[in-house]
Amino acid sequence: AGVWLLLDMQHSVQAGDGDESTEEYAVKIASALAYQQIRDGKAVGLAAIGRDRIFLEPQKGTGQLWKILESLAIVSAAGATPFDRFLTELVPALGRGMSVVAVTPSTDSAWPVALRQLGDRGLYPSAFLLEAGSFNGVGGDSLSANFAATYGLPVRTVLKGDRFDSIQFGGPRPSLDGAPAFTFSSGRALR
């Protein structure tokens, strides 16, 4: 098995500037997850739709890591496609039995419904929610707190200022709901 990394690059939901933007944090999270999973011998795929559409089928090895990193280096949050529509369009291509990690700053309630439906198709969805409000954008801090209960999804909240070089997927301790814990290298557990 492996993991799909799905990035929300819709321009209208992004917040912050430069290195302290939701766009840059999404790239850092995807880079860290790709590195860790490939290092552990897992297949990793990447999909994003911004200025350009990125779709890399899951594969193992350092060659795949380089393809992912090259794609992340040029991805741009200049897209117009809402994340829920992007997720729905991807369904036929994602297969079954893989983990799916969505990374988004969107507070639209449509995308978690679309992500949850991937679970109904034999995938294992989870998400990183970049709190747009903390990046000086528009966002509701209460949204992420209710995701797990409302949508049955493991969601990890990321705030502006969180520092990380790598992320442990399926970290040292599982969350209460049985989903893997994600831990930034700084030690701040994402719940």
- What is the number of helices? 5
Report the structural category.
alpha/beta
Radius of gyration: 15 Å
- Proportion of helical residues: 25-40%
Question: What separation lies between the terminal Cα atoms?
Answer: 24 Å
Following the backbone from N to C, one meets helices and strands in this order, namely: EEEHEEHHEHEHEEEE
Number of separate strands: 11
Q: Can you summarize the main beta sheet?
A: 6 strands, mixed
> Strands across the major sheet, in which order?
5-4-1-6-7-8
The residue ranges in which pLDDT falls below 50 over 5 or more consecutive positions are 171-191
Instruction: Note the beta-strand portion.
Output: 25-35%
Which geometry do the CA atoms define? globular
Query: Mean pLDDT, rounded to whole units?
Result: 83
How would the blueprint of this fold be written?
Elements: E1 2-8, E2 16-17, E3 20-21, H1 22-39, E4 43-49, E5 53-59, H2 62-74, H3 83-90, E6 99-104, H4 110-119, E7 124-130, H5 141-151, E8 155-158, E9 167-169, E10 182-184, E11 189-190
Parallel strand pairs: 1-4, 1-6, 6-7, 7-8
Antiparallel strand pairs: 2-3, 4-5, 9-10, 10-11
